[in-house]
Design goal:
It is built from 8 helices and 10 strands. The longest helix is centred in the N-terminal third of the chain and has 14 residues, at 16-29. The chain has helices at residues 16-29, 54-61, 69-72, 83-86, 95-106, 130-137, 151-164, 184-194; strands at residues 3-9, 34-37, 40-42, 45-47, 50-52, 75-77, 111-119, 141-147, 169-176, 199-203. It is of the alpha/beta class. Helix 7 (151-164) runs parallel beside helix 8. The two termini are 13 Å apart. Substrate binds at residue 42. Pathway: Cofactor biosynthesis; biotin biosynthesis; biotin from 7,8-diaminononanoate: step 1/2.
Length: 223
């Protein structure tokens, strides 16, 4: 049976992709055939193959199964912004296509991280959120908390929403988004009191996303 999780965050730019890479590496070391799936992405960098989403490229690089860019990221919008703005008749995000993309990856991998975009309530249309698709699919959730001022409030609110969704809440991960953060342990201690799910571990500040050694990071794989 395939094993898959949805990776969401307390905000945008709080380390979902870094977390996904580390989890994929750790799962691969345990013998799993791993894949990252970024169903919706906005924002791009210039490459020799044109504009591409950097998160998608990193997930492709760190998956053990060979998948195309399009398979990992079926809905790509070059400009950074909330996806509901770009969800038009020309390129319409719908659950059927998200399902189709995940089904393709399920044929190749048996350990899958589905990386969200933004936070739990990122809209993909005028009336739906990406988390609605996760509820529909009943996919277990992992929450990434970017350690910064305000993260306690964001983490507790997001955690409560995930719990109320009746999905399996497999755990949360604390990510240092700055090497100057002084209160990280204090944030972690208080969040643990209010989110009654497994604390999977802490990711130190990563200086180079292209050179991540997961062996030095104490992080448990979700169950």
């Amino acid at each position: 049976m395939n094993t898959q999780w949805f990776l969401t965050g307390t905000d945008t730019n709080i380390g979902k992709t870094i977390t996904a890479i580390i989890l994929l590496k750790k799962a691969a070391n345990q013998g799993f055939k791993t894949a990252g799936y970024k169903p919706i992405a906005s924002g791009s960098i210039k490459t020799i193959h044109g504009l591409k989403n950097n998160d998608t490229l990193l997930l492709k690089k760190n998956s053990t199964v060979n998948l195309s860019y399009q398979q990992i990221n079926p809905f790509f919008f070059p400009h950074a912004g909330p996806p509901h703005i770009f969800n038009t008749k020309k390129k319409k995000i719908n659950f059927n296509d998200l399902d189709h993309g995940l089904n393709i990856i399920n044929q190749h991998a048996n350990w899958i991280i589905i990386e969200g975009i933004g936070g739990w309530y990122t809209p993909i249309s005028q009336c739906t959120f990406l988390s609605d698709w996760i509820k529909y699919k009943q996919i277990p959730v992992i929450l990434v908390v970017g350690l910064k001022l305000g993260c306690i409030n964001h983490a507790i609110l997001t955690g409560k929403e995930i719990i109320q969704s009746n999905l399996k809440f497999s755990g949360w991960i604390a990510n240092y988004i700055s090497d100057k953060e002084k209160y990280g342990l204090d944030y972690i201690n208080i969040i643990q009191k209010y989110i009654p799910v497994p604390f999977l571990g802490t990711i130190p500040y990563i200086y180079d996303m292209n050179n991540i050694s997961e062996q030095k990071i104490i992080l448990k794989l979700p169950e």
